[in-house]
Amino acid sequence: MRGESDFVAYAEARVARLRQRAYLLCHDWHLAQDLTQITLARLYASWRRITKVENIDAYAAKVMVRAFLDHKRRKSSGEIVTDSVPEQVDASTPDLRLTLLEALRQLAPRERAIVVLRYWEDHSVDAVAEMLDTTPGVVKTQSMRALSRLRTLLGTDMAALVD
Amino acid sequence: MGEQFRRLVDEELSAQQPPRLDGLVARAVGDGRRIRRGRALGVGSVAAAVVLVVTGGALLLAQPPPPHQSPSGVVTAGTDELPATPEALLELLTSLLPQGTVSGHAGRVDRDWIAARVYLNQNIVQISVARRLSPSPPFCVSAPPRSDPTLGSTPRPDASELPPELAAPGICDLRADGSYIQRFEEPDNCAERTGFDVHRPDGVSVRIVTGGCPTPGGPEEVPGEVGLPASTAVAIVSDSRWAPTMPADLVTAGVIHFPDLPDIPGATPG
Questions:
Q1: Of A29, A159, B12, B113, which residue has the fewest beta carbons closer than 10 angstroms?
Q2: Which of B2, B21, B24 faces A161 most closely, judged by CB atoms?
Q3: What was the pLDDT predicted at A12?
Q4: Taking CB atoms and an 8 Å cutoff, what residues of chain B touch A44?
Q5: How far, in Å, CA of A94 to CA of A49, rounded?
Q6: Reported pTM
Q7: Residues from chain B contacting residue A122 (CB–CB below 8 Å)
């Protein structure tokens, strides 16, 4: 695929899904719009080169996740990330049960990115490691830590969700 | 693998009510073009939305500093002034905006520029100030300056009253006060459709960007409410208080009124 019309066709087909991923990362729809726009802008700027890579979607994921993590590094976006576990959750009571999205939000940004890429998008450990510029071992470790945290937050069997 | 996880997340996502996607791809194309132009001028990867401001900063660095600039090139504050901050920019910007619903306050500071952004009635208004002084305007090299009192005097004209040459993209004009003003257009980017750059004789460079997307559900060719009328945008960008250093009361008030200001997200290397 080459040229602007190809890019626009690609972007129109992917924009909703890209924005969903951005939302899962940042939990703010306006920031998700910005992250999606930044991702697409960077794809457009390098479109000719990008079309030579094997997996454009994976490249787009890499650009977005790095933009997100860079944003988190540069300045607090107002999102509160805490290491403390909230009050005991009674998973058997639906009204009091934490939603999966709310639980994701309480993960550290990098762990959240790993969970989204690994379990929502089904990227391999190696692919996620490449996207985050780290090693597969680190991805595995942080995945386990993130799932453990989710298990604590949700009071449910995470293994059943991700296996 | 993870089918149930995906299904649960998708279910919860589908219960969300995200804003409309109108024009997002077109805005990305506009930003992408600016990134390309920046690269063509030798500027590296920068924030998409303000790439030309960074370009200006990069060009400024190659020029000799004016006498009132510090040896480092970064402007120093006077007695009653402090280095400008995104919060101070927001303080001034919100005081200059016409009545309307203002939301989405955000700011950013980088090596060469400071920026602040709000949404006025859902339309972007972004102001950027170069942190370094420029002895000459960096954007007017292709267009010889002309004297046109229309833009240099008060009251300033509405868009329909702008000289046709100035309504075209990339045309500069010299105003009566000695400043240059350049209007630029991004026809495919409704949210950031119009902008003005001002380069003042004191070396300050300021940019304002605004736009308005078609009304949701309306015909595509019918523009929606414009974020700022051209006359208001010109008036705002021409305010003499925009500078790398700003009055101390603005800087102080900005800290009080805009604590924990979110960052305007930017692009990353890669």
A1: A159
A2: B2
A3: 94
A4: 28-29, 31-33, 35
A5: 49
A6: 0.49
A7: 1-2, 6
Instruction: Give the mean pLDDT of B84-108.
Output: 91
Residues A69 and A89 in one domain: no
Residues A132 and A62 in one domain: no
Same domain membership, residue A67 and residue A105:
no
CA nearest to A63, candidates B270, B124, B263, B23: B270
* Residue at a domain's end among A48, A79, A110: A79
Residue B12 and residue A99: Cβ atoms within 8 Å? yes
Number of domains in chain A: 2
Least confident interval from A72-81, B13-22, B178-187: A72-81
Q: Give the DSSP per-residue string, A133-156.
A: TS-HHHHHHHHHHHHHHHHHHHTS
Q: What are A3-35's pLDDT values in tens digits? A: 788 999 999 999 999 999 999 999 989 889 989
Residues A125 and A62 in one domain: no
| Residue B198, beta-bridge partner list | B181, B206
For residues B219-241, give the mean pLDDT.
74
CA dist., res. A100 & res. B8, Å (int)? 7
Chain A contacts of B262, Cβ < 8 Å?
31, 75-78
Interface pTM (ipTM) of the complex? 0.82
Contact B115, B44 (CB under 8 A): no
Query: A148 is written with which tokens?
Result: 């453990």
Nearest-CA neighbor of A55 among A65, A43, A66? Answer: A43
Which tokens is A3 given? 């040229």
Chain A / chain B CB contacts < 8 angstroms = 147
Using an 8 Å CB-CB cutoff, list residues of chain B that contact chain A.
1-2, 4-6, 8-9, 12-13, 16, 18-19, 21, 24-25, 27-33, 35-36, 39, 45, 47-48, 104, 108, 260-270
Interface test with B, best of A34, A116, A124 (most B CBs within 10 A): A34
Cross-chain CB nearest to B6 (options A39, A62, A120): A120
Task: Return the DSSP state at A119.
Answer: I
Question: How many Cβ atoms sit within 10 Å of the Cβ of residue A110?
Answer: 18
pLDDT at residue A75 greater than cutoff 60: no
> Which class for B244: exposed (0-12), middle (13-18), buried (19 or more C-beta within 10 A)?
buried
Of A35, A64, A79, which residue is a domain's last? A79
- The total of other beta-carbon atoms located within 10 Å of residue A17's CB is 13
| Residues of the domain holding A151 | 84-163
**B173 in Cβ contact with B155 (< 8 Å):** no
Structure tokens at B62: 């190659």
